[in-house]
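fyi for ur records
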Amino acid sequence: MVEIFFWPDESAPLYFEYELSPHNYELPILVPNDKGTFFGWLPWHYEGERKTRHATQITSKSWTAEFFIPYALLKPLANVPPAKGIKWRCNFYRIDYDQGSSEWSWRPIRTNFHDIESFGTIVFN
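which gave:
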């Protein structure tokens, strides 16, 4: 499973999460997270210009994933689409369950993947 988290506006306790499985099943959701208190999550409606594109490939030793998330899907979150110089908090994960659990994250986490205070920052140029 690969997961990404986009938090384009730190003043709002709301971010976008996208999951893609090795078998090409996806889950785009909106997550309310107020300082570690979760209020569930909402499936995100997407069709037309909001539709994602994704593909996976499995071999005997590995799997790869690629996806495209249009800015239109992230509306009505603030700072979307991002202007030059805008900063978003985010993180990227990979989880495998082949023999136990193996995890990788772009930015280290303290508690779980929803540890928004540990998200890194990307700057749009």
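The longest strand covers residues 87-96. thats all i got for now
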